[in-house]
Design brief:
Length: 609
């Protein structure tokens, strides 16, 4: 098949076309790109001195902005383009990684944008050559703190950033739609600032201190950054949990009310992880964790696990792109979640401070007043003042916060470690963050020093009250406690039984999985034998008891192996004895005339669950 190529040739080029040249005259062999109307063309000088003009594309384009996006892990680059498409002006943004392949042309410009056969790389080069000098811009794609020279600034959605002198910096911020309402503004006068701070403290009047104080403490702690824990507000529908968390969120933007919260568990795990990564040094509410039952449980549970584990460990999931390993994007916000159900798993709950709200806990009149103040922007005004105050000595406050949290962890909240080793640190961080806020409030003239002392004590008491109930949440999700609870249920349901050391019915046999014979006297064992009673002790057959617990658990099976379970039982103080000589968790006992290796548990520990 014959192939034809149209070439315009003239002694001095095509006299009917204006063809501006962009080339170095000292290198005449280089391609010379130009315009023919709204099309891009290639001009080449032939050996006979005449010009050959080859159409490249049916449109012309030039790069007007070279945007470098900053995000601390891996940068990205975007080009802002101005396109002339047959007389129609179009503006587009194209990632630098996509630009060279030119696949973006059809996707962004449509079918009338034609790159002629064989001219793809010439089209790319022509755009770059025709662009001339391009303005370079740096854009931040996240919220939170950034240091410019010796000064600290807090990035937000509008106005660029807030510094010690207020807003109005020339830093550019480009955020996803979900974060567009993060906007606070320091007030112009001290009187407005003091009024806004007092309005924020009125938030403490809405509900009992065990609920409301930790929430406000989280608001105060969030802009100080580097939080390795999250909060979870649990309650049934109608308990106003979403309304409470919305007021917390409105400290960071008046428009983020209960209908416009930035995050929801209906989103995918990747979307929430990216959102929590970009919402650095701020509070991020993620609403409505409800386990639907069935297969959906595992999906929603996996989302919660990725978020809360990532926040607690400061690690995200690494990804492979283009054959290269890219660092994970872990949550950098202080997460505040709500739900009717709690995430499952002992290690996940250990990274949460769980707060329960019940029907009747919330004062509706006070709630309504605070909602009005939040809509007016007073909460966000207070936060804007606080952030501007932090910017004066951000690094100094970070050091003071760490020292104070370490002191509180060791001297005030150390007993909370009985529930979990992470809990004292969470409480200490919240208390220390609230104390920083109170220092700011005194300096701003919003409260007196006597009220500062009173509020410190009130916060400490509320956190201790909250800590007192954390143990029940952790026990409910701890495999060791679950194991004993499942055994108790198996015995009560007649799916397992425990005998005396001779294999006969023990005293109070009905408590240990035995049923009276239908006729006559005596007892019949139910289900499989999982252990033996001897005095005040229970000796469990390791394999049989583990199987009985797993069978009763069904789809909610224990998430650990039998060997790991034995170690957890010892860690929780639930093994009454071990074989120290052999360094074994199983002990040897003669039961039913045979030497057996069994788990030694106190009868009281099994009976009281």
């Amino acid at each position: 098949m014959a192939r034809f190529r149209i070439v315009w040739v003239g002694p001095d080029g095509d006299p009917e076309r204006e063809l501006p040249e962009i080339a170095d005259p000292t290198h005449p062999s280089r391609p010379r790109y130009g315009l023919a109307g709204t099309e891009m063309v290639l001009r080449e000088r032939l050996p006979n001195g005449r010009w050959k003009v080859t159409p490249i594309a049916s449109f012309s384009a030039r790069i007007v902005r070279d945007v470098i996006c900053e995000d601390e892990i891996e940068g990205c680059r975007e080009f802002g383009l101005e396109v002339d498409l047959q007389g129609r002006k179009v503006s587009q943004s194209v990632r630098a990684s996509e630009f060279a392949g030119m696949g973006w042309v059809l996707r962004k410009l449509g079918p009338t944008a034609i790159i002629y056969p064989g001219q793809q790389q010439h089209a790319r080069a022509a755009i770059q050559f025709l662009s001339g000098a391009v303005k370079q811009e740096r854009v931040f794609t996240r919220l939170g703190w950034v240091k410019q020279g010796e000064l600290w600034f807090y990035l937000q959605a509008e106005g660029g950033a807030i510094g010690a002198e207020g807003s109005g910096t020339d830093l550019q911020v480009q955020l996803p739609a979900s974060l567009q309402h993060y906007y606070v503004m320091p007030p112009a006068d001290p009187e407005t600032r003091a009024r806004a701070i007092r309005a924020s403290l009125q938030f403490l009047s809405i509900a009992p201190d065990r609920i409301i104080v930790p929430l406000l403490a989280a608001v105060c702690r969030a802009p100080l950054g580097n939080a390795d824990f999250s909060l979870f507000l649990a309650g049934r529908t109608g308990s106003f949990k979403t309304a409470l968390t919305a007021l917390c969120q409105q400290h960071f933007g008046a428009r983020m009310d209960a209908r416009r919260l930035p995050g929801n568990f209906a989103s995918t795990a990747n979307a929430l992880e990216e959102l929590a990564y970009r919402a650095q040094d701020t509070l991020l509410v993620i609403d409505d964790f409800v386990l639907p039952g069935g297969p959906g449980d595992s999906t929603l549970g996996a989302i919660a696990e990725r978020l809360f584990r990532g926040a607690g460990n400061g690690q995200g999931r690494g990804r492979m792109r283009g054959g290269r390993l890219h660092a994970g994007r872990h949550p950098r916000a202080l997460l505040l979640a709500t739900g009717e159900d709690l995430p499952k798993g002992h290690s996940i709950r250990a990274r949460l401070l769980i707060i329960s709200v019940r029907s009747g806990d919330v004062n509706r009149a006070e709630l309504g007043e605070c909602q009005q103040r939040a809509q007016e922007g007073l909460f966000a005004t207070a936060m804007g003042s606080y952030i501007s105050w932090i910017a004066r000595d951000y690094e100094g406050l970070q050091d003071r916060l760490r020292r104070r949290a370490d002191e509180l962890r060791a001297s005030v909240f150390h007993q909370a470690s009985a529930a979990h080793a992470r809990l004292p640190g969470i409480l200490a961080e919240l208390q220390a963050g609230f104390e920083v806020w109170l220092e700011f409030a005194v300096e701003a003239g919003a409260i007196e020093q006597s009220e500062q002392v009173q509020l410190k004590q009130r916060c400490r008491k509320a956190l201790e009250e909250t800590a007192a109930v954390q143990g029940s949440y952790h026990r409910a999700s701890d495999p060791a406690f679950q194991f004993l609870s499942l055994l108790r249920s198996a015995l009560a349901a007649g799916q397992a039984h425990i005998a005396d050391r001779h294999g006969m019915a023990p005293e109070s046999a009905d408590r240990w999985g035995w049923r009276p014979k239908p006729t006559g006297r005596g007892w019949l064992p139910q289900g499989s034998r999982i252990g033996w009673l001897a005095g005040g002790d229970v000796f469990l057959e390791s394999g049989a008891s583990y199987r009985a617990a797993q069978e009763l658990a069904g789809s909610e099976s224990l998430p650990i192996s039998a060997l790991t379970l034995h170690r957890r039982l010892r860690q929780r103080g639930l093994l009454a004895g071990v074989d120290a000589g052999r360094q074994m968790l199983l002990v040897r006992r003669v039961l039913e005339g045979c030497s057996r290796e069994v788990l030694h548990i106190k009868q009281s520990d099994l009976a009281k669950l």
